[in-house]
Design goal:
Elements: H1 8-34, E1 64-67, E2 75-77, E3 87-89, E4 92-94, E5 102-104, E6 111-118, E7 133-139, E8 146-151, E9 185-193, E10 196-197, E11 203-205, E12 208-213, E13 216-223, E14 245-246, E15 257-265
């Protein structure tokens, strides 16, 4: 056998070349594996089947119907927890300003909410005294404690923009004014992410909300600064799952009506 002596430098070059080609081979093998489409496909868990409503705005199969036009069995008075005393007639419920706010019997955390409302065709008043109500996305006490999505007639009615329809009251100006005329039914579709609190009551993550008003995006994943306040700055106080509250505002204008309310807990 003939042996050939290899200088150290030559051995280094040979080993380097071998390493290079090994690396190229590995890269090619990795690239070839990425060409296999099955490596990026997921087959489980399979999402549940949800049957959508027959028409736009109808409750899907997994929704909890909060008001179907028949009764107020899913609602109570905020003041004392007694049966809700708003007026139900011809498939709609109308605010009863004499008795006050109502809220759901059930409490919720994160959810998708659909709700429809109508400003009276004969509405009078101006500014905040014109079809005023509110949807409290989490009710945390009596009165107006919680996080309010404003309901108001702003079709031809000016007010402060962080208090008009589509606003998170005194916090978020809506991205657009999508009001329909008084007398026409209007819709809110809401995605609510509840705030989370540490065991000591401090805030772990803030509430967030996305809102479509009559199909138009008016709040886009807005991060709330706390509970809405008529006076003063918003702030958080610890709470858990909470009811959804509808406001009987004390302004003198004609009371508004609601219908077709359903929710999908997330």
């Amino acid at each position: 056998m003939i042996q050939i002596a290899c200088p150290s430098a030559t051995r280094v070059l040979i080993l380097s070349a071998m390493g290079f080609f090994a690396g190229v081979t590995a890269v090619r093998a990795q690239a070839d594996s990425l060409d296999d489409h099955k490596l990026t496909e997921i087959y489980s868990p399979v999402p549940p089947v949800v049957t959508p409503g027959a028409q736009a705005g109808d409750a899907p199969s997994d929704a909890v119907v909060l008001f179907d036009g028949k009764n107020l069995d899913k609602w109570v008075m905020v003041s004392d927890g007694s049966a809700a005393k708003w007026i139900v007639d011809n498939g709609v419920m109308t605010v009863n300003k004499k008795v006050g706010n109502i809220q759901t019997k059930e409490s919720f955390s994160n959810y998708q909410l659909h709700i429809e409302y109508r400003i009276p065709a004969n509405i009078t008043g101006s500014d905040q005294a014109r079809g005023n109500s509110g949807i409290f996305l989490a009710s945390t006490g009596k009165g107006d404690d919680g996080y309010e999505l404003q309901v108001l007639d702003n079709y031809n009615n000016k007010t402060y923009v962080n208090g008009q329809v589509g606003s998170i009251y005194k916090q978020a100006v809506p991205l657009a004014n999508a009001c329909r005329k008084p007398g026409e039914w209007q819709t809110y579709d809401i995605i609510w992410t509840a705030p989370v609190f540490h065991t000591d009551g401090s805030l772990a993550s803030p509430a967030k909300v996305t809102v479509l008003h009559n199909g138009v995006l008016v709040e886009n994943d807005f991060e709330l600064k706390g509970q809405t306040r008529y006076r003063g700055k918003p702030y958080y106080k610890a709470h858990g799952p909470s009811p959804i509250k509808l406001q009987a505002h004390g302004d003198p204008s004609e009371p508004i009506s609601y219908r077709n309310i359903w929710i999908r807990p997330l």
